[in-house]
């Protein structure tokens, strides 16, 4: 059934018959109501022609009344619906209709009650969407682009966040229809979409969402428009060199990709090309943009377009540092958002951590330092190891950030690493090594690094204010540390007693200084000259201690002004707070509270001082382990020993606790003072930790030097330990007993029982001797009553009598005998045969007795000389007291070490040190070159300890310098590091205008020592080896300020003669060689050698001045062979020329690792000593420029030299890696057909061996003394 329009009223006024507005609105409303109900299928369109014609009239579409226009619009929308798809209008009328529609739609922006016709406007919008009337725009040829452009702009202007979802969907649908159905879009329409992605301009989130959804829904249609749009912008900007426009375009691209990545598929190749452009700024922008797009959260670009990923990765090697920096900024997104590509991220960071530009290296460190825990869990080990290297970077800022980053990574990862073994997020092996790596940075000996390490250790590694948690954390860390790192940890903890004394002295001087107004109550009564003298002295002391502390607290340029400023505050309350913090009796909470209070007051005073004093307070207080840690450590020891489940972790932590406990007893015995009653309780009830508690009591007794008071049960238990315990328990129990209030009566009784039981003691002889040694040391008057019997027994029955044959030693030890037992020089302490243990204990007893005698009788020289005779005999006879070599190698090595250490121990006493004559000191010094590594290590460690504690004269520093050829690189570097640090510390202790310190004065002593070395000779190879001693000294000691004195001091050796030797030729040769090496070092370092003005006289105890004429004549002579200078210069030239080849082929020798070396330590055996060759007296009377050039001397030079016993593991001298990478085994016989070539290759091999000046030369054989 055909339906016709019933509406027949006028809506267009005729001439002279206007229609009232209200009436017109009513008629249009009626028309709309009828049109909206009509269906296109049953409608007679002809009935609409009149209405359709009237509705488009200008009088209606431009009517001044909003209601009229609103209803005209909806009626027109109905007409478009009913006539679809062919509206009853021409092109001009269509254009006018859509212009009218857009104006009506613009009013949709107002969806408040003020807009009375919102529903009509929405009706129009919905009709255009559902009927798809908007496609009629395609029929307009003139002005279509303008209308489409306005449509897009209108849509983005209309939409508001508070619009209904229907409005949003209708607008989206309309725009989507245009994009999909039109052949092309005007540029302005595309720009309207793109502009929505500019965050700095777009505040309308609804418009942004509309653009995003449009791009997502029509990505395949918009791709070409976006590619063209941005390509044109970038190309035009390049031509105009408008970098800002390019950067702005890239920001829009990134924003679009973040929301609708598919729309940019055709644009990615453009960005790839931009990363290769010559313009640095455009390449920078492209690298940044592409990096963001690749690794934003949810992005699939890296997988979808691998070429884009590879192009971006290639920018890691960009020539412009800013491009490399920008690339690194994006790497963190990989770890956070795309763990599948962490391998690429690891490679980038690892490579850029070694970038030649420090800004890039620092950026890498910063990126790592800001990663969150999840990102950290994806970090590769290679990156962390490179981060470890950045902790040693030459740039201070990079080092600090790297160290802090390492600490933060561990802090964030610790909780995960200590979780259950069941699928932890972060494997323990990933980050458990970090504390050790940080602690080993202390071996760099740089005060700034040390301060930073201490800060990270306190704030990150051990971060916790709960003492139980902190102890658990510390012990877990100890289980992960190697020996070096653990030693460093104990060194940090052990600084507190010494440094706190320095700080206490500083505070005392600050108090006396009193802001420059010195008044001790009697000051004004003194003469003015005396007042001025006292003021100058206090000022000098203040400057001295401030310089000393500043050197240790970091960069003196920062720390010294802070200390100087603090000294002028005269805040007595602050002084008292710091003194309070020094006490070893403060617990963790007290330390934290007091530290905060001090820093708060300092910050109020001057914020610039906080960093320096935070470091000072950490080092002054017990910041790492406190007195309230002790019970928890003991509890862990107990758990480790009694764990029923024998859980590996519990036992490991228990062992770590026991290890730490023993170390703390040594460095912080005062900390245990408040726990004496608990330790006593552990002893009395025979707890599993009674032995540890007993040792702690012994440490407290020795440190406190006050009488202890134990009840009868405790005393009985102590005596029981002496007679029934092992040697260590007996020793510690005797120490405690010697400090009892009733010590004399108790020890007299114990002494009688012990001495009477010596002849019958078998299994416990070592324990008896250990206990007797402590009584001899602490109660010598009581011991004296039995000393004859005891010393006679020790010497005759223990030291001079071998109870077992050498071949049976391995059988009597606790270890199984092996085929190499005949050559075995060392076993662990618990594997030592009982006889060896007793010999060591007996020798120590004699030393203790002499130490005890020195406290009561300064005149008993017979006892002292008797002991020295025993000790020198042991050293001179390779560890034997009897001439018959019947002791095992194990026994001899132990006796040599014990004798050496005993002599060093006795030398701490000035009276005993005076007994060590020059020739004896030489023999004692050579013990540092013992054939047995463990012997050398123990001697070196004890020497470093005594010298560090300033308990030995400075001449003993030269003993350590004889380690220049130490084959164990780890030990060598530790000794060299100690020498460097000691030289720096001694310089810091002197006034600023005093460049030369005691350590520089040891140079001539070292030359003297070397001139008496049994391996000293005059041919080239011997001098080359001895030059290493001088170079190691210069590495550790020489500076720009001291080089002139060092040169002058060795020059002066030419005007003296050796007081203990018939010939001084070795001395003069070494003097010339030292002068040459100093000049060589000064030239390389660009240090001027100036004339030294002060008078210097070599030590009279070693040298005697020549007569004036002889001295002048001798000074002009050249004792250093010209062959040495020539060969050395030749080798240096070869090293420079061959360096590129080595880098290409990997040539450089095989440095023996500590692990491989230790594996063969037990197999090292001493060679029989040979007599030292001495030059004739006549050789002193003439220069020896041609010495060492004869065929005989050349033959000898081919044999490397060492001291007695020094058969050392090293790489073969006759194997060299050639440029083609092949290993060629060389014949050593120069008479072969290829001998010339082989000698040349051997020379290269020696050159390669010397290439790294930081590596000690490995001595592989020995020369006759």
UniProtKB/TrEMBL annotation:
Primary site of residence: nucleus
Alphabetized InterPro entries for the sequence: ARM-like, ARM-type_fold, Pds5
Comp. bias (Polar residues): 1150-1166, 1187-1196, 1226-1235
Keywords carried by this UniProt record: Cell cycle, Cell division, Mitosis, Nucleus
Disordered: annotated segments: 1136-1265
Compositional bias ranges of the Acidic residues kind: 1216-1225
Example GO biological process: cell division
Record's protein name: ARM repeat-containing protein
Phylogenetic placement of the source organism: Eukaryota, Fungi, Fungi incertae sedis, Chytridiomycota, Chytridiomycota incertae sedis
């Amino acid at each position: 059934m055909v339906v016709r329009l019933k509406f027949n009223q006028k809506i267009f006024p005729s001439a002279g018959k206007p229609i009232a507005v209200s009436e017109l609105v009513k008629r249009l409303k009626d028309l709309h109501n009828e049109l909206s109900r009509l269906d296109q299928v049953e409608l007679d369109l002809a009935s609409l022609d009149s209405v359709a014609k009237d509705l488009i009239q200008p009088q209606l579409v431009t009517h001044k009344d909003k209601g009229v226009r609103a209803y005209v619009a909806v009626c027109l929308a109905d007409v478009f619906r009913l006539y679809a798809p062919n509206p009853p209008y021409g092109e001009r009328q269509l254009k006018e209709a859509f212009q009218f529609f857009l104006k009506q739609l613009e009013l949709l922006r107002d969806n408040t009650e003020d807009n009375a016709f919102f529903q009509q406007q929405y009706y129009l919008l919905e009709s255009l969407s559902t009927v798809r009337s908007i496609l009629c725009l395609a029929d307009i040829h003139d002005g279509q682009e303008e209308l489409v452009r306005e449509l897009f702009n209108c849509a983005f202007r209309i939409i508001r966040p508070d619009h209904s979802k229907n409005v949003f969907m209708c607008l989206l649908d309309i725009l989507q229809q245009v994009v999909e159905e039109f052949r092309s879009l005007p540029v302005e329409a595309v720009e309207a979409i793109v502009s929505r992605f500019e965050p700095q301009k777009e505040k309308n989130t609804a418009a942004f969402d509309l653009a995003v959804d449009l791009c997502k829904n029509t990505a395949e249609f918009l791709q070409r428009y976006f590619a063209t749009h941005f390509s044109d912008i970038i190309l035009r900007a390049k031509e105009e060199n408008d970098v800002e426009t390019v950067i702005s375009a890239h920001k829009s691209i990134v924003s679009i990709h973040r929301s609708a990545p598919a729309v940019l598929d055709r644009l990615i190749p453009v960005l790839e090309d931009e990363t290769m452009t010559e313009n640095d700024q455009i390449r920078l922008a492209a690298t940044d943009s592409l990096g963001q797009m690749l690794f934003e959260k949810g992005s699939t670009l890296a997988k979808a377009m691998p070429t884009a990923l590879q192009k971006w990765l290639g920018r890691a090697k960009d020539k412009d540092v800013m491009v490399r920096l920008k690339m690194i900024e994006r790497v963190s997104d990989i770890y956070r958002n795309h763990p599948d590509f962490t391998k690429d991220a690891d490679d980038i960071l690892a490579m850029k951590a070694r970038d030649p530009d420090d800004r890039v290296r620092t950026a890498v460190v910063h990126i790592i330092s800001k990663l969150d825990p999840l990102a950290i869990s994806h970090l590769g080990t290679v990156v962390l190891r490179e981060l470890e290297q950045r902790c040693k970077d030459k740039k201070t800022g990079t080092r600090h950030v790297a160290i802090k980053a390492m600490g933060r990574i561990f802090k964030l990862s610790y909780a995960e690493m200590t979780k259950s073994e069941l699928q932890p997020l972060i494997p323990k092996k990933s980050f458990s090594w970090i504390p050790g790596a940080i602690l080993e940075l202390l071996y760099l000996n740089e005060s700034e690094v040390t301060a930073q390490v201490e800060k990270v250790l306190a704030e990150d590694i051990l971060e916790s204010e709960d003492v139980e948690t902190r102890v658990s954390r510390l012990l877990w860390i100890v289980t992960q540390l190697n020996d070096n790192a653990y030693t460093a940890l104990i060194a940090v903890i052990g600084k507190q007693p010494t440094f706190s004394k320095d700080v206490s002295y500083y505070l005392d001087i600050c108090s006396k200084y009193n802001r420059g107004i010195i008044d001790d109550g009697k000051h004004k009564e003194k003469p003015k000259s005396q007042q001025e003298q006292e003021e100058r002295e206090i000022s000098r002391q203040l400057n001295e201690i401030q310089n000393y502390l500043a050197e240790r607290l970091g960069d003196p340029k920062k720390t010294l002004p802070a200390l100087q400023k603090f000294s002028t505050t005269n805040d007595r309350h602050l002084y008292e707070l710091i003194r309070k913090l020094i006490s070893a009796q403060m617990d963790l909470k007290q330390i934290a509270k007091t530290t905060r209070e001090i820093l708060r007051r300092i910050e109020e005073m001057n914020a610039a001082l906080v960093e320096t004093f935070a470091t000072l307070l950490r080092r002054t207080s017990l910041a790492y382990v406190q007195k309230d840690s002790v019970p928890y450590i003991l509890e862990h020891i107990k758990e480790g020993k009694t764990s029923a489940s024998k859980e590996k972790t519990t036992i490991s932590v228990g062992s770590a606790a026991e290890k730490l406990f023993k170390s703390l007893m040594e460095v912080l015995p005062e900390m245990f003072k408040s726990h004496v009653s608990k330790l006593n309780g552990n002893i009395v009830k025979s707890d599993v930790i009674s032995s540890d508690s007993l040792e702690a009591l012994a440490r407290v007794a020795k440190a406190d030097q006050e009488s202890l008071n134990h009840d009868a049960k405790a005393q009985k238990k102590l005596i029981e330990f002496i007679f029934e315990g092992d040697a260590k328990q007996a020793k510690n129990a005797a120490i405690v007993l010697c400090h009892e209030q009733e010590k004399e009566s108790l020890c007299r009784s114990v002494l009688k029982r012990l001495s009477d039981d010596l002849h019958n003691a078998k299994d416990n002889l070592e324990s008896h001797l250990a206990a007797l040694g402590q009584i001899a040391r602490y109660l010598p008057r009581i011991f004296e009553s039995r000393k004859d019997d005891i010393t006679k027994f020790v010497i005759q029955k223990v030291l001079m009598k071998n109870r077992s044959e050498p071949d049976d030693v391995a059988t009597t030890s606790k270890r199984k005998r092996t085929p190499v037992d005949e050559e075995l020089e060392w076993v662990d302490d618990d594997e030592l045969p009982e006889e060896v243990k007793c010999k060591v204990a007996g020798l120590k007893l004699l030393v203790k007795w002499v130490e005890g005698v020195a406290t009561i009788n300064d005149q008993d020289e017979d006892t002292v000389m008797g002991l020295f005779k025993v000790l020198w005999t042991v050293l001179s006879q390779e560890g034997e007291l009897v001439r018959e070599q019947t002791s095992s190698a194990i026994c001899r090595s132990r006796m040599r070490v014990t004798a050496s250490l005993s002599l060093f121990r006795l030398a701490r006493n000035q009276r005993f040190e005076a007994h060590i004559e020059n020739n004896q000191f030489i023999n004692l010094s050579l013990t540092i070159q013992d054939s047995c590594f463990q012997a050398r290590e123990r001697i070196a460690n004890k020497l470093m300890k005594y010298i560090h504690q300033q308990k030995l004269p400075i001449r003993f520093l030269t003993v350590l310098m004889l380690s220049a050829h130490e084959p164990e690189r780890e030990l060598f570097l530790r000794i060299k590091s100690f020498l460097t640090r000691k030289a720096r510390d001694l310089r810091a202790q002197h006034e600023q205008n005093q460049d030369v310190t005691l350590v520089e004065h040891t140079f001539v002593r070292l030359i003297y020592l070397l001139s008496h070395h049994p391996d000293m000779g005059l041919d080239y190879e011997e001098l080359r080896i001895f030059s290493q001693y001088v170079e190691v000294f210069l590495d550790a000691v020489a500076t720009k300020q001291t080089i002139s004195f060092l040169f002058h001091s060795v020059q002066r050796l030419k005007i003296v003669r050796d007081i203990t030797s018939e010939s001084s030729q070795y001395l003069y040769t070494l003097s010339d060689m030292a002068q040459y090496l100093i000049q060589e070092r000064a030239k390389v370092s660009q240090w001027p050698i100036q004339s030294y003005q002060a008078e210097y006289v070599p030590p009279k105890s070693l040298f005697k001045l020549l007569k004036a004429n002889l001295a002048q004549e001798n000074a002009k002579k050249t004792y250093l062979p010209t062959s040495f200078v020539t060969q050395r210069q030749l080798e240096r030239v070869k090293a420079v020329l061959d360096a590129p080849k080595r880098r290409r082929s990997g040539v450089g020798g095989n440095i023996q690792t500590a692990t491989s070396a230790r594996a063969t330590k037990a197999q090292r055996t001493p060679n029989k000593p040979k007599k030292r060759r001495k030059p004739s007296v006549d050789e002193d009377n003439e220069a020896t420029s041609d010495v060492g050039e004869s065929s005989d001397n050349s033959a000898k030079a081919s044999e490397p030299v060492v001291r007695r016993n020094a058969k050392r593991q090293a790489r073969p001298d006759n194997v060299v890696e050639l440029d083609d990478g092949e290993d060629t085994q060389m014949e050593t016989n120069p008479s072969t057909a290829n001998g010339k070539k082989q000698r040349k290759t051997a020379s290269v091999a020696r050159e390669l061996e010397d290439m790294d000046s930081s590596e000690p030369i490995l001595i592989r054989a020995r020369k006759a003394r």
